[in-house]
Each structure stands twice: as structure tokens, then as C-alpha cells.
């Protein structure tokens, strides 16, 4: 298991948390405006209407603030405080697209935000303290981890790897054998989805780039996914690397 991943530092969830706070403030501002503007005309319909509509919007604002606080606390404490699974869904389905827009307005690259999102997602999954049997865990790998000059076809059957050690597929195949977990190399999102449908895992440990991990986490929800970013010393999609020790640590944290 030689590769130690010197190409990139650990992604930080702080950025995503900060952007989440900004998004929350913007949402609350929009909710307030949504109340204030029609209120100018609501009085004309019924004198009590502005108060009722105001209360509804206050509850919505409170929920947005409370939800953000819960998310921050869950990731900070690493504990499943309340409805973490549901919260992860809100982050994935609603907050991420908004945060990506706000981040791009602030000049933050999509990949930086996605790295932070993956770290945040991992924190939420780990805070659920899931314990899964080995045969219900699937390690999903991108095809680009395999040495481009290797003539063996490991897609669909990683056991065909001759374990020559020229790429990280060897260490990952050995890891899967050691812990008796399912492992698969997929050439793209469609094949990855097919593997997930076939194997029906309870948890996926996925290795990929920022873009593929983000879309994979979105597609798989509510299935929990722990994402590990690959390194790309030769550019995207070719001879990528991953620190097998990172995968082993993630695996041990969820194994029964
Ligand atoms: S470790 Fe396996 S996949 Fe990688 S180059 Fe060697 S035989 Fe090919």
C-alpha cells in the first residue's frame, strides 16, 4: 500500500459550513422580503392577514436558522443530534446548488466547493455512527485508478488484477479481500448505478474526482456514501492515485 497521497491536503468542510451560513442569511432575507412586500397590500384584503402571514414566514425563517445550526453542530460534534439523514438530504438537494451559485459569485471554484461538500457529507454520514456488515459495503472505484498501460480488464471483476503493484488497484483489491467487502471498478456513472442496483449495498465507499463524487452522492441519496477524492498527478482521468490507508480507515469506521 505504497501511495500516501502527497498531491492534495484534506478537504475542509469549514468553507461549506461558512457558505451554508451565508445561504441561510440570504434565504431568511428573501423570506422576509416575501412577507414584507405583499404585506403592503395584504392589509387591504383583511386587517389580520399580515400578522398571520408574518407568523408563517417567521416559522420558516426559524426552521432555516435551526436547520443550519443543527447541521453545524452535527458536523462539529460528530454526533447524530436530530434528523441527520434528513438534513443530509436538504444539503444535497437544495443547499448544494444554491451554495455553488453563491460560491461562484464570490469567485470560489466549483471544485473547491465540491471538495468541501464531500467533507461535509462524510462528516454527516460518519456522525450517524452506522455499523454495516462487510457484505453490505461496496467500494466503488473509478476506472482511471488502473494503470493506463495495464492490459488486464478489471472493470466488473477486480480479482483479475495480477497484483503487480504498478497501480493502487492492487492495494484496493487486497483490502477488499482482507475485509471481505464488495469492490467494483466502474467506467462511469451509468455503470456505477448498475453496480449499486445489483449489489444493493447499505453503504458505499466511493473514490472519484470532485465532480463525480458530488453527482454520485446526489444520485445515491438516501444511500449513505463516504467519498474519498483521488489524486491526479498526470491530470484528470488518467493514472490517478488514492491513499489506500485512507480507504481502510474509512472502512474500519463503519464495519460491524
Ligand atoms: S496492479 Fe493490477 S490493475 Fe494495476 S497495473 Fe498491476 S495488474 Fe494492472
TrEMBL record:
Pfam families reported for this sequence: DUF116
Nucleotidyltransferase in keyword set: no
Spans traversing the lipid bilayer: 15-37, 52-78
Name recorded for this polypeptide: DUF116 domain-containing protein
Keyword Transmembrane attached: yes
Keywords: Membrane, Transmembrane, Transmembrane helix
Amino acid at each position: 500500500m505504497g501511495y500516501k497521497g502527497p498531491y492534495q491536503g484534506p478537504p475542509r468542510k469549514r468553507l461549506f459550513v461558512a457558505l451554508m451560513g451565508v445561504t441561510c442569511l440570504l434565504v431568511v432575507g428573501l423570506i422576509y422580503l416575501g412577507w414584507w412586500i405583499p404585506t403592503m397590500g395584504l392589509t387591504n384584503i383583511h386587517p389580520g392577514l399580515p400578522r398571520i402571514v408574518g407568523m408563517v414566514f417567521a416559522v420558516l425563517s426559524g426552521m432555516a436558522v435551526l436547520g443550519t445550526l443543527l447541521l453545524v453542530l452535527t458536523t462539529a460534534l460528530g454526533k447524530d443530534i436530530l434528523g441527520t439523514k434528513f438534513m443530509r438530504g436538504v444539503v444535497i438537494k437544495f443547499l448544494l446548488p444554491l451554495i455553488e451559485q453563491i460560491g461562484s459569485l464570490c469567485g470560489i471554484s466549483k471544485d473547491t466547493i465540491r471538495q468541501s461538500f464531500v467533507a461535509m457529507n462524510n462528516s454527516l454520514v460518519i456522525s450517524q455512527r452506522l455499523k454495516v456488515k462487510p457484505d453490505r459495503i461496496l467500494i466503488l472505484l473509478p476506472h482511471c485508478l488502473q494503470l493506463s498501460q495495464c492490459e488486464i480488464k478489471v472493470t466488473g471483476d477486480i480479482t483479475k488484477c495480477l497484483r503487480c503493484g504498478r497501480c493502487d488497484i492492487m492495494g484496493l483489491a487486497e483490502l477488499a479481500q482482507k475485509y471481505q467487502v464488495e469492490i467494483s471498478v466502474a467506467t462511469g456513472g451509468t455503470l456505477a448505478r448498475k453496480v449499486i442496483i445489483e449489489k444493493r449495498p447499505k453503504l458505499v465507499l466511493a473514490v472519484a474526482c470532485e465532480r463525480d463524487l458530488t453527482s454520485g452522492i446526489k444520485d445515491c441519496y438516501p444511500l449513505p456514501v463516504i467519498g474519498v477524492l483521488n489524486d491526479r498527478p498526470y491530470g484528470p482521468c488518467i493514472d490517478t492515485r488514492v491513499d489506500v490507508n485512507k480507504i481502510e480507515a474509512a472502512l474500519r469506521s463503519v464495519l460491524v
